[in-house]
Amino acid sequence: MVKAKFFKITKIFEGEIKETDLTLEEEELPPIEDGEFLVEALYLSIDPYMRAIAKSYTPGQVMIGSQVARVIESRDPSYPLGTTIVGHLGWRTHTIVKEPSNHGVYIVPDFGNLPISLSLGVLGRTGIAAYFGFVDICKPVEGDTVVVTAAAGAVGHQVGQIAKILGCRVIGIAGTEEKIKWLKSIGFDYVINYKTTPNLAEELQKAAPKGIDCYFDNVGGETSSIIMNQMNQGGRVSVCGAISSYNAKVPIRASIVQPAIVQKQLELKGFVSNQFLDRTMDGIKQNLQWVKEGKLKYRETITDGFENATRALIGVIRGENFGKALVRVKTSHVANESVDFSNALNKFKKLSR
């Protein structure tokens, strides 16, 4: 018998998440049956959206989230022992999977010598959100000026680099001087510290005297209103999130943006990464190529220990992470991260045809 640990939501979040809002529990899993396989988590993905959709949570529910996991027992020939998968399996150390498609499960393709943790970051659904959320919605062209908020986060730092690869001028907005320096080191042309800048509108005018063509919005609020009022005619806005309001107990108020949208004929569209599920492998292949070419750099903020997952999420909402935030799960079976990709690679080739 395998004992699984999991985090259960005990109280609906109000304001900032508290560690007491979730409890760590344990259960004994039954033997797997035909058509099932058992996985053991390697890493948990920690993302702002987990806080954003808190209204849909129910006390007693296992905390939601994606993980990269390894098959440790199988009675499903499509997922043999040792296969590494990504899936929406929640905050669990062990999970019995019966219908993989219901959990968004896919086999991790071959990354070569790159860390398997990237399958939750630049080479996972986060990378899919950055790539398609920017390219499909902002429709960048060479020479465009692009603004990215929460630019040092998992999605933001990747969007900025993709914009540079495509020949754009990129302005990032972040909240610490350390983040400012890092973003400049990975190619951002201009970076603004929104916490210390006395007048964001004036600083943006200095950074983009000819106006802004594309805006990748991760924060919402007054920051987004200021940016949209400085966009050029026909500008495009991709709305990924609104992290500025996630912990708010009352609605965040911001200047209205409808006059700018109408007068400048802006195109504004929101998205979720799951809408690109059928193009997952295309996005992963493109991001993997850029990583291998050295054009796309990544950074991970890793919290060790499954028991520290709640603390890691609190840190993400506070903006403490650089790049992708992850929890490295330490369990009895996870001795190292080497992966036998033979089965995964064959399936990846079939999916990529």
What does this structure look like?
The protein is of the alpha/beta class and 353 residues long. It has 2 domains: 2-121 and 300-352, Medium-chain alcohol dehydrogenases, catalytic domain (Quinone Oxidoreductase, Chain A, domain 1, Alpha-Beta Complex), CATH 3.90.180; 125-274, NAD(P)-binding Rossmann-like Domain (Rossmann fold). Helices cover 26% and strands 25% of the residues. The chain has helices at 49-52, 125-138, 156-165, 177-185, 200-207, 221-228, 258-263, 280-292, 309-318, 342-352, and strands at 2-9, 22-29, 37-46, 67-74, 84-87, 94-97, 106-107, 145-149, 169-174, 190-193, 212-217, 231-239, 267-270, 300-304, 324-328. Strands 3, 4, 5, 6, 7, 14 and 15 form a 7-stranded mixed sheet that branches. Strands 10-9-8-11-12-13 form a 6-stranded parallel sheet, with helices on both faces. Helix 4 (177-185) links the parallel strand 9 and strand 10 (190-193). Mean pLDDT is 92; it is low at 333-353. It is found in: Cytoplasm. One of its GO terms (molecular function) is 2-alkenal reductase [NAD(P)H] activity. Keywords: Acetylation, Cytoplasm, Fatty acid metabolism, Hydroxylation, Lipid metabolism, NADP, Oxidoreductase, Phosphoprotein, Prostaglandin metabolism. This is Prostaglandin reductase 1.
Condensed summary:
The chain has helices spanning 49-52, 125-138, 156-165, 177-185, 200-207, 221-228, 258-263, 280-292, 309-318, 342-352, and strands at residues 2-9, 22-29, 37-46, 67-74, 84-87, 94-97, 106-107, 145-149, 169-174, 190-193, 212-217, 231-239, 267-270, 300-304, 324-328.
